[in-house]
Specification:
- By secondary structure, the chain is mostly helical.
- It has a single domain, classed as Rhopdopsin 7-helix transmembrane proteins (Up-down Bundle).
- The chain has 12 helices and 2 strands; from the N terminus they run ααααααββαααααα.
- A two-stranded antiparallel sheet has the order 1-2.
- α4 packs antiparallel against α5.
Length: 352
């Protein structure tokens, strides 16, 4: 059984009909619903909240004229994250509340699962690239730095987009099961689960887990032992934030990757499945939280875009050097100005 027959490409080229031998649901399964209103409400509300936080950050990135390699990776990662959050949070929440599984809405869930899987796998590549970029920032001689040279980087970006398209259209998708409030390759229609194993997804998850963990361990080691102690409070806080961010990002991605591989091959307890689903959600959602809490440039740009000028003046929120200089009360404090720049490199991701 080829992956093509079980992919979205087959569905699109066969009048939006799924391969019947593998995805034909028994009529009895269409009558059974397992509603999970509490989990569904959580995923729906938290998903909409994270998308609401992420959207202005994404708009700020799009409006920026900065196109350094790391920034371009951040931009495309934002697209992958928003697509993933739509699937692993919003759609998951709605289906949980309705108690609907694959057999209730096969075409819709099949399509959503293909997009969710493709966005996860594309995002994994982007996360590895960002980890490499951070290592290059702290060590200019890092051997993988050549990936960010102009001509090479163009090829890397094209390959990442091709990989995302391949993952969405030419591989087995994830399918939602309300009983576990999670996504599986097996539609749970009574067939042998091994028929639905996704080798490409397994390889992707193992690679991203090992790669990001290794790169962030290298980054933390270099910051702690190579750069050493500094009397600069700014540098000390920056190092702390970089290490904290590395631990958070690495933890969410590694947990989600390993659990989803484990779920595919071994019957898992419900609590572990929920942890895997939460890890997948926050592996995408943690970036917008990092941008708004640790990235002063993006945070200021978002405030300036959303909060009207009159309100900023009323509450003394002078975002940007131009607004500081126009305010007579602030001219004697120019040295304390928090300048704004939406041209963000990854080293600014955790600027204090």
């Amino acid at each position: 059984m080829s992956d093509i027959q079980m992919s979205m490409a087959y569905m699109v080229t066969h009048s939006f009909k799924l391969y019947p031998e593998m995805y034909q649901c028994p009529e009895s399964m269409r009558m059974v619903r397992t509603k999970r209103p509490v989990l569904g409400t959580y995923f729906l509300v938290s998903g909409l909240f994270l998308i609401t936080l992420y959207t202005p950050c994404f708009i700020v990135m799009v409006r920026s004229k900065c196109r350094v390699p790391a920034f371009q990776v951040m931009l495309i990662l934002a697209v992958f994250d928003l697509l993933s959050l739509s699937v692993n949070s919003v759609i998951t929440g709605v289906l949980d509340i309705m108690g609907a599984s694959f057999c209730h809405y096969p075409i819709f869930i099949f399509t959503a699962g293909a997009i969710g899987k493709g966005s996860w796998m594309g995002g994994c590549v982007a996360c590895i690239l960002l980890a490499v970029d951070r290592c290059v920032e702290v060590n200019a001689k890092f051997k993988l730095g050549f990936l960010f040279r102009k001509k090479v980087f163009r090829v890397v970006m094209v390959l990442m987009i091709v990989y995302w398209i391949y993952s969405c259209t030419l591989t087995k998708p994830l399918l939602f099961t309300a009983e576990y409030s999670s996504w599986f390759f097996d539609p749970k229609i009574g067939k042998e689960p091994t028929l639905y194993h996704s080798i490409d997804h397994t390889i992707n998850n193992l690679v991203v887990s090992l790669a990001t963990t290794s790169l962030y361990i290298y980054l933390c080691y270099h910051l702690i032992y190579k750069i050493g102690y500094s009397t600069s409070m700014w540098l000390y806080r920056s190092k702390q934030q970089i290490i904290m961010q590395a631990v958070i990002l690495c933890t969410f991605h590694a947990v989600a990757a390993y659990i989803y591989v484990y779920m595919q091959f071994v019957s898992s307890p419900p609590w572990l499945i929920i942890i895997g689903q939460l890890a997948w959600q926050w592996s995408n959602g943690c970036f917008c939280v990092a941008y708004l809490t640790l990235n002063q440039a993006i945070r200021n740009a978002v405030v300036r875009m959303i909060v009207p000028k009159k309100l900023r003046e009323r509450f003394d929120l002078h975002i940007g050097i131009d607004e500081h200089l126009r305010n007579p009360d602030q001219q004697d404090r120019v040295t304390a100005i928090n300048t704004i720049s939406t041209c963000v490199k990854m080293d600014n991701l955790v600027s204090p």
